[in-house]
Write a structure and sequence with these properties.
Radius of gyration: 19 Å
Helix content: 25-40%
Number of strands: 10
Largest sheet: 10 strands, mixed
Shape: globular
Distance between the termini: 40 Å
Strand content: 15-25%
Number of helices: 12
Structural class: alpha/beta
């Protein structure tokens, strides 16, 4: 009977990102939760280069679902620098924001203080890099020309570069983000730099799809005050060939396992279908199978 049950499982490959970043950590919690809630599903996380690789992998049908930051999703669906992608949203993951972590003894206090300095922007395929490009474009800056850029092979390599001085700061974000945790827990401690109030106004005026996100006090060791940062919701997207029935089952399992994923991941409590409705640029960009479940569950009228 076990063998027959195993054969009936629907295999779903989930594209995450490079080891050491937030996406694989979330992917593990997400997959295990969905598999537990629906024994007919076998969601398998797979390391990739991140958001910007997941989009073409999804389009080619080489993965079934994949994680992407809001900025990369926006570019893909709107056709920025490429034809519009025929992808649909399965669910909102969590809100992602961008800011810098520095050693506590760094003399830098503002974004301007970091100009010309070596900055670890993240893995080259990471959505954090795309977010940085938009944020600094809104400030009239180029992340490759106005700073000395460092692109990482693995997201997990960034903290050591900050701690040993190879990088003045590491760009990243998200509550509980591994890179920030690593620097914050170092013996010397850490500080954070985010755009100021005037910076935020300038960025939002130029790029309206970016949102302000509050990072609560105490989100990281030594962070005793809330920080206002810029970002968006990261999303799980589906390939064009994902059947409606599979999307329906994924949504149902996520909704059923809400408390389970929240217990397994620091930001899992944000992975709700209500947040999915709020995060989607348009309702028709949500997978039809997910919309069907939302209507049945009373989440969508």
């Amino acid at each position: 009977m076990d063998k027959a049950a195993a054969q009936e499982k629907t295999n779903v490959v989930l594209g995450t990102a490079t080891p050491g970043g937030g996406f694989p950590v979330y992917g593990a919690a997400y997959s295990s939760t969905l598999n537990e809630m629906d024994p007919t599903l076998s969601v398998e996380p797979k390391n990739t280069k991140g958001s910007t690789e997941n989009i073409p992998l999804l389009e080619a049908g080489r993965i079934h679902i994949g994680q992407a930051t809001g900025e990369v999703t926006y570019e893909a669906l709107a056709g920025v620098g490429r034809p519009p992608a025929n992808l649909r949203i399965i669910n909102a993951m969590y809100s992602s924001f961008g800011m810098f972590v520095l050693r506590a003894d760094s003399p830098a206090r503002t974004l301007a203080d970091l100009k010309g300095k070596p900055i670890a922007w993240g893995a080259s395929g990471s959505g954090f890099v795309v977010l940085a490009r938009y944020v600094f474009d809104g400030l009239g800056l180029d992340i490759n020309k106005d700073f000395s850029p460092i692109y990482l092979e693995r997201a997990g390599d960034g903290p050591a570069m900050v701690l040993d001085g190879r990088a003045a700061a590491l760009w990243g974000g998200g509550i509980g983000w591994p890179g920030f945790v690593a620097v914050s827990k170092s013996p010397g401690g850490a500080r954070f730099i985010a755009p100021g109030a005037e910076d935020i106004k300038r960025v939002l005026a130029r790029h309206s799809f970016i949102k302000t996100i509050t990072v609560p006090a105490g989100s990281y060791p030594g962070q005793d005050a809330p920080i206002t940062a810029l970002g968006s919701y990261s999303l799980v997207l589906a390939s064009p060939s994902l059947p409606d029935d599979v999307a329906y089952r994924l949504a149902r399992a996520l909704n059923k396992g809400q408390s389970v994923i929240a217990a397994r991941h620091a930001q899992g409590s944000e992975s709700t279908l209500a947040n999915t409705l709020a995060a989607a640029p348009r309702q028709d960009l949500i997978h039809p199978g997910v919309l069907r479940y939302m209507r049945e569950a009373g989440i969508l009228n």
